[in-house]
Structures are given as C-alpha cells and as structure tokens.
Description:
This protein is α+β, with helices and mostly antiparallel strands. Helices cover 20% and strands 22% of the residues. The chain has a 5-stranded antiparallel beta sheet with strand order 1-2-3-5-4, with helices on one face. A hairpin with a 3-residue loop joins strand 1 and strand 2 (25-29). The longest helix is centred in the middle third of the chain and has 17 residues, at 59-75. It is globular. The N and C termini lie far apart (36 Å). The model has no long low-confidence stretch (mean pLDDT 97). Adenosine monophosphate is lined by residues 5, 14, 16, 28, 30-32, 40, 86, 92-95. Residues 5, 14, 16, 28, 30-32, 40, 86, 92-95 line the site of adenosine monophosphate (AMP).
Amino acid sequence: MNDCLFCKILRDEIPSVVVYENEYVKAIKDIDPQAPFHIIILLKEHIEKPADITSENCNYIGQAALAAAEIAKQEGLTDGYRLVLNSGSMGGQTVNHIHMHMLSGRNLGWPPG
Ligand code: AMP
Ligand code: ZN
C-alpha cells in the first residue's frame, strides 16, 4: 500500500466518478474540469511520470490511448478530443502517478498556455 492519491482512487479508498475501466486503466471525471468533457485515465500501475516510461511498462500508455478511443465512441465524441500527458513541474504535473487527460466539448486552443 502507498499514499499516492491516484493509487487510493484505484483501490476505491477515495471516491471517484468512473467513466470506463478495464484491467489496465480506470478513467474518472476530473474534479476540476477544464472543458465540458474532462476525464483522467489512470494507469493501473504506479509509474510516477511520463519520463519514467520504459520498454517494460510502455504498454500501459498504449492501453490508455486505446481506452480513450473506446471512451470517445462510448460518449459520442464525434468532433474530436485532446489527450495530454503532463510530466514534471514544467509540464504542469501535480499528481505523481501517470494519468492521461482527455478533453472535449469545446474548441481547445493551441498552443497550450
Ligand atoms: P496533472 O496536473 O496533470 O498532474 O493533473 C492532475 C489532475 O487530477 C488535475 O486535473 C486535477 O483536477 C485532478 N484531480 C486531483 N484530485 C482529483 C480527484 N480526487 N478526483 C479527480 N480528479 C482529481
Ligand atoms: Zn500511484
């Protein structure tokens, strides 16, 4: 057991609104949404940050992208969506357990602020 916020959500020790789940990921509604549709896809493996992805654990990232495609169908996001991985302080990462943001429901600007 560890103290990581997202590990606690994965263990159902902290409540969340689950949108999708399989053996690799659990997708939940973001508590502070930045778009009409904003979920975070939590990897069911405590990897701290994208910079720690290796050839051994990279399957989880592929599974998260696959889950996003499934969720887009499930939620009818036919006009597209954005996937974001924040890594480290300059990347804007605040929770040190890899998660993929999935945003949709409005036109998202580029470049990000
Ligand atoms: P990041 O800044 O990329 O590390 O993203 C962390 C995200 O987790 C932010 O968008 C937060 O709003 C979100 N978040 C933090 N705590 C919770 C929680 N208990 N349930 C759902 N989302 C959360
Ligand atoms: Zn964790």
